[in-house]
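From the pipeline queue, job 12 of 40. The input is one protein chain; the requested action is below.

Action: predict structure.
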Amino acid sequence: VQLQASGGGLVQPGGSLRLSCVASGSFLKINSMGWYRQAPGKERELVADISSGTTTNYADSVKGRFTISIDNAKNTLYLQMNSLKPEGTAVYYCNLDFSHYDYYGLIEEAVLWGQGTQVTVSS
């Protein structure tokens, strides 16, 4: 199973970006997916996640500005980011919690991280 994130870049304060994260490979189902970010010198923090395809959760700092969604047919996670602020500058990582068959044919839950995509909010 692999995750491929894209969509980062340089944007002016108040601008918008949309991040995408595609999950590929063999797995039974997606339990949840999420976006995290890590700014220089800071710990990685949750931005938003979505579970069971519909239940969403947002960090207080992004509520009302960011929207997380998932296209189950494409196994693709999105993060629409509007009204971006300079403090949103960070590497954004996607996260996948999924179920799959292990070597013995038993269902196992696993977590995978994408490679990260840089978002820079600056004038």
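Job complete. The mean pLDDT is 94.
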